[in-house]
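Narrative of accomplishments. A recurring question from our advisory board has been how the design workflow behaves on a single, concrete structure rather than in aggregate. To address it, we present the structure tokens for one chain from the evaluation set, followed by the sequence designed for it. No filtering or post-editing was applied between the two.
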């Protein structure tokens, strides 16, 4: 198949959607399909990354309305040049609007990946809700990250769509599972410390605030315990820093900001317990939670909030512990149970690792996506696209070297 991937969040952006998108793209590449990815972040221009053609549009403008046109134009031009059999949109956002427009103009079938929060965030809005429902209803196929998100689609859009559930896959071979963490210890003052870790955007639903409160309750019992918060995006860092300062925890709550992939691997290897008691915060919801799987891959036990699709990411009592996300006593209980019992930590962490390797591998999840895309091509009808000369600052054959055969 000739597949155009529209990915609003894609590496080097850190986060679950970015990792999810990259895992699926890599899996499709490994099966021999012709791929091109259009994304909005990273150095503008055309790149060959891991054997995959990636177009990165410019986002140099200060105002958001001026940042979006380059991305949308890049999607449109890529579709006209590549003439894809199907478009795979990894997030229902501005890219989804362009996929819908291409479908209207050229009848190119598109497949939408729904994560959950885009439904809860927009469905109640009179105009945005109508747009979201239109994009979903006109898609050739809907994919979700969890059964919980399937229920959200039914609730906000209606029955009868029958989405396919594809859990975020992990490419275990892409991770350095035994990195040297000495430089990390020096930079963040982790030498001799026991480490709790949360990875993700600094937003209310991730549960950072509750973890800081739990740490305050057990700080004397575990004097060498620190809490590392990894992630740069989001709005609540000032309030978290203020809370930590008020509780006398400024030296024990460590904010890394955005971290590169190599440092993220070191953090997972260095941590003792991954804790992210996610909850539903207004319209914001955790549709699955790929960070739990990443921590499990490193053999680490995880603590998750019993909300949204987290119960599908964390198997309670098997790969981790689920808690009521705003119940500080439950978070404290889960933390102390794991901190006091090395055998339990190893048991849950190893079970989580085996689940990632056996049930959440790229091969298994991408087989489902491949079926979805093939059926979408079979059922969709594509109108002829206009001719558009292929131009590249690096020469006319830049793409033909890596995208030479149509499967």
């Amino acid at each position: 198949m000739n597949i155009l991937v529209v990915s609003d969040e894609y590496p080097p952006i850190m986060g679950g959607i970015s990792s999810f998108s990259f895992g699926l793209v890599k899996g499709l590449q490994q099966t021999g399909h012709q791929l091109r990815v259009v994304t909005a972040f990273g150095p503008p221009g055309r790149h060959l990354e891991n054997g995959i053609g990636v177009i990165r549009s410019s986002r140099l403008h200060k105002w958001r309305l001026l940042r979006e046109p380059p991305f949308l134009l890049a999607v449109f031009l890529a579709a006209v040049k590549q003439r894809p059999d199907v478009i795979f949109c990894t997030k229902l956002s501005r890219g989804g609007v362009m996929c819908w427009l291409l479908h209207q103009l050229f009848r190119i079938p598109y497949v939408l990946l729904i994560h959950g929060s885009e439904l809860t965030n927009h469905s109640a809005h009179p105009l945005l809700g109508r747009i979201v429902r239109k994009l979903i209803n006109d898609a050739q196929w809907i994919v979700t990250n969890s059964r919980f998100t399937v229920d959200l689609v039914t609730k906000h859009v209606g029955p009868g769509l029958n989405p396919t559930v594809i859990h975020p896959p992990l490419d275990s071979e892409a991770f350095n599972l035994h990195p040297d963490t000495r430089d990390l210890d020096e930079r963040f003052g982790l030498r001799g410390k026991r480490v709790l870790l949360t990875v993700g955007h600094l937003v209310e639903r991730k549960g950072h605030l509750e973890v800081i409160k739990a740490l305050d309750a057990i700080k004397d019992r575990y004097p060498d315990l620190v809490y590392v918060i990894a992630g740069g995006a989001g709005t609540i860092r000032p309030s978290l820093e203020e809370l930590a300062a008020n509780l006398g925890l400024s030296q024990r709550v460590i904010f890394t900001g955005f971290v590169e992939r190599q440092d993220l691997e070191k953090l997972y290897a260095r941590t003792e317990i991954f804790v992210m008691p996610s909850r539903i915060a207004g319209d914001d919801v955790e549709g699955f939670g790929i960070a739990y799987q990443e921590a499990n891959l490193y053999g680490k036990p995880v603590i998750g909030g019993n909300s949204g699709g987290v119960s599908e990411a964390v198997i309670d009592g098997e790969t981790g512990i689920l808690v009521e996300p705003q119940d500080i006593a439950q978070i404290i209980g889960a933390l102390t149970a794991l901190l006091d019992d090395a055998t339990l930590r190893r048991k849950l962490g190893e079970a989580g690792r085996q689940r990632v390797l056996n049930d959440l591998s790229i091969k298994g999840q991408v087989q489902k996506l491949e079926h979805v895309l093939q059926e979408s091509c079979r059922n969709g009808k594509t109108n002829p696209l206009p001719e558009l000369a292929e131009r590249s600052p690096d020469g006319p054959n830049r793409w033909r070297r890596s995208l030479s055969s149509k499967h």
